[in-house]
Specification:
- Helices cover 17% and strands 30% of the residues.
- The chain is an alpha+beta fold.
- The strands form 2 sheets. The chain has a 6-stranded mixed β-sheet. A 4-stranded antiparallel β-sheet has the order 3-2-1-4.
- The longest helix has 7 residues, at 57-63.
- The chain is globular.
- The chain starts with a helix and ends with a strand.
- The relative contact order is 0.23.
Amino acid sequence: ILWDETKWNTEPLSSDNPLVFMIGPLTGLVPSSSRYVVAGISPLTGIWGQAHSGGDWAYELKHAGCDGIVIRGRAERAVYLWLHDGEAEIRDARHLWGMDTYEIEEPLRQETDTKASVATIGPAGEKLVRIACIMNDGKKGRAAARCGLGALMGWKNLKAVVVRGTAK
């Protein structure tokens, strides 16, 4: 996807740089296979960047009916993406901006589903720190922590991706 949608000189913090979340074909089907990769042009290096994480987030994404998410462009204000059982909603996140990655999980679960899993950025991602990571699963502290992709998420004004799935 990055190969097809970017050029050699794509600026990391630009609308031309997609943020790509993907899971593998066995995620959610085989025990201990709940991992995801997030990729984009790295705000840290200016070239291909990818980070991986485990936890419940990838499992929930699969059971919500998705094998991946490609986020293009930039929101005008802070938002979060709520994916659940084949449905997608973009919701206002201005009230969540400034929260850290531990404290945001409960408010988002109250707004969506108490069993939802959250991948989010904290203040470093919001401030476009070029080493910012994407954290998931709240206080379990799972991190996609390479290449500064949290800064790309922050540049897109995307505070979090919340997922919940009940499909088999």
